[in-house]
Design goal:
The chain is of the alpha/beta class and 257 residues long. 38% of the residues lie in helices and 24% in strands. The strands form two sheets. Strands 3-2-1-4-5-10-6 form a seven-stranded mixed β-sheet. Strand 4, helix 4 and strand 5 form a beta-alpha-beta unit.
């Protein structure tokens, strides 16, 4: 997972984050929703390399960052040795500390069992504490995954069980939060088309996620499948000489009742 490019990032996986500059800028935009205040205790859920955790600390707040990837936390500690960064699974994390806010950028769509994550967030917050989160929403990379599904089925391979992401609508996620004990105060679902680098950008993306979508195919067979996916996706995703992923984001603010 990634505080940055997440489902667009070839290295992205649950509990693992590296923050490219563009992704960090997007996270900084989300911080404008969080508005961390001096002395506030804030949990950065899926802290990745710690850059946004450090930005929260720079505002005078007292952040704790958690990430499920041991390697990611070790790198983040080297990068930000003064921060409280912990290895923890967001589905099971519990703390005696009650936080004023939980912040999460480009993470929640990577974590299975969203009700467990929502409960973790609820348990972590004090009454009246706030959740500020952004992650991939319904329709994210739908044109591309639709093309992948079509090609797989044409080759006799089922689609079920391949998509690694949780992409809810506003209604789905707001309903989950409300059932968990939150009042949703703001929610925005927006498209954010994302450029891929170079003519081979889409092929590289497919190869990066081949372990999810094409695990039973050897590398030589995958190349032909990629050609078919690219042909199907081109009308929707190739614009004026540039591959643009059809990314979609969900941004939510909620208060613990």
């Amino acid at each position: 997972m990634n505080h940055a490019q997440d489902s667009l990032n070839p290295t992205a996986r649950p509990g693992s984050h590296d923050h490219p500059a563009a992704g960090t800028r997007a996270g900084e935009d989300l911080l404008s929703w969080l508005q961390p205040k001096p002395g506030e205790r804030i949990l950065d859920l899926g802290c990745g390399n710690g850059d946004l955790t450090a930005a929260i600390a720079a505002a005078g707040a007292i952040p704790t960052g958690i990430d499920a990837s041991e390697d990611t936390i070790h790198r983040a500690r080297e990068r930000h040795p003064s921060l409280d960064l912990q290895i923890a699974d967001a589905r099971r994390y519990r703390s005696d500390v009650r936080f004023d806010a939980v912040f999460s950028h480009a993470v929640l769509h990577w974590i299975p069992e969203p009700p467990a994550v929502a409960e973790t967030i609820h348990q972590a917050l004090r009454t009246g504490g706030r959740l500020v989160a952004e992650f991939a929403g319904k329709g994210n990379v739908a044109a591309l995954t639709g093309a992948i599904e079509q090609v797989l089925k044409a080759h006799g391979s089922p689609w079920e069980g391949r998509n690694p992401w949780y992409h809810p609508s506003i209604g789905e996620y707001a309903g989950l939060l409300e059932r968990t004990g939150f009042r949703v105060t703001s929610a925005r679902h927006f498209d954010l088309p994302t450029p891929l680098k170079g003519e081979e950008g889409l092929r590289k993306w497919l190869d990066s996620f081949a372990g999810y979508f094409f695990p039973e195919f050897v590398q030589s067979d995958r190349a032909a499948l990629y050609d078919e996916v690219i042909r199907l996706a081109e009308p929707a995703l190739y614009k004026e000489g540039q591959w643009m992923l059809d990314t979609s984001r969900l941004r939510v603010m909620a208060i613990k009742l």
